[in-house]
Amino acid sequence: MKALRLVRPGRPLVMQEIPIPKAGPRDALVRVMAAGICHSDAHYRAGRSPTKSLPLTLGHEVAGVVEETGAAVDDFARGDRVCLHYLATCGACDYCREGAEQFCASAAMIGKHRDGGFAEFIVIPAASLVRLPREIPFEEGAIMMCSSATSLHALKKARLKPGESVAVFGVGGLGASAIQLAKALGAGEVFAVDIKPAKLELARQFGAIPLNGAECDPVEEIKRNTGGRGVDVALELIGLPLTMQQAVRSLAIHGRAALVGITEQQFSLAPYAELINKEAEIIGVSDHLANELPDLIELVRQKRLRLSDLISRKLSLNAEPVNAAIDQVEQFGDEVRMVIMHSL
Q: Greater confidence, 172 or 57?
């Protein structure tokens, strides 16, 4: 089969012909129909976030059709439409049993620790399969498996309650989903902070109040628009010290800042004024959980989360266009979501 593989960090992905993987007794072989291109793929290609071993097929946002199942798999059969939870885990440790599988010591992420979905086929434990309703296209099933799922997990970690105000820092794939999900969960005012006019316009279309961080101080604007109060929940989805700092500073009394963006850099804060005197919280958010995916899929099925509006480009499984797309993601371009489609 064809697979787009990372052979050397800092170099473009390379198309290779490799054997179709074999499904074990508890596995499923899935014919990939769609695979999303995520900002994490840019990190892996650049070597900023190390992968387990090379060469490696990237791609952790995957949807497709079950081609074959192992002898011990009873829940799925050939022809089933599925999307893939990004982790293969032991299923037996304390973290797995309590539904916090991202901390399983043996967890292996597709596209980082084991071969992912930038290929014609992928093998995954059947326990990581999620049924994809027929009314949801494969490309939407793919992209909801990371950006949308992580945004939902962040809002849950931040304990968003109906009527509360929200600030979303970064209107990429995560942010565009977060705005819609916050509205679906009953949020009041939602502010969207970015520096790209096209992304701010998309945020406005989803019902958010757009704030251009290149033209204003978003913290001051949020406070001005809330009568000096600030927001109840702030989501930082970029991974920059400046926007992390802004997310914390934008909080109201009892506000919660959920930090999702990945960075190794530090940011400063004033503990008394910005946390202690408000009883505010900073919450770390690590990916998402399998048990949240059915709720997410239902929101998409009901069209309360519109993912078709986020897909700006569909690509074929070829090295040149996919590497160019990853270049754009790395440079924080205007594109929101790009998807590799195997039917093209």
A: 57
DSSP class per residue in 246-283: HHHHTEEEEEEEEE-S--S------IIIIIGGGT-EEE
At what angle are helices 173-184 and 197-205 packed, to 10 degrees? 20
Q: At a CB cut-off of 8 Å and minimum separation 6, what does 327 contact?
A: none
Residue type, 175: G
% of the chain beyond a pLDDT of 90: 88
Burial of 268 (0-12, 13-18, 19+ CB in 10 A): exposed
**Per-residue pLDDT tens for 141-160?**
999 999 899 999 999 999 99
Report the chain's mean pLDDT, rounded to a whole number.
94
pLDDT score for 343: 62
Contacts 24+ apart (CB under 8 A), 153-156: 153/285, 153/287, 153/288, 153/289, 153/292, 154/178, 154/235, 154/237, 154/258, 154/260, 154/285, 155/181, 155/182, 155/185, 155/233, 155/235, 155/258, 156/292
Q: Which residues pair with 296 in a beta bridge?
A: none
Task: Quote the CA–CA distance of 333 and 196 in Å, as a whole number.
Answer: 8
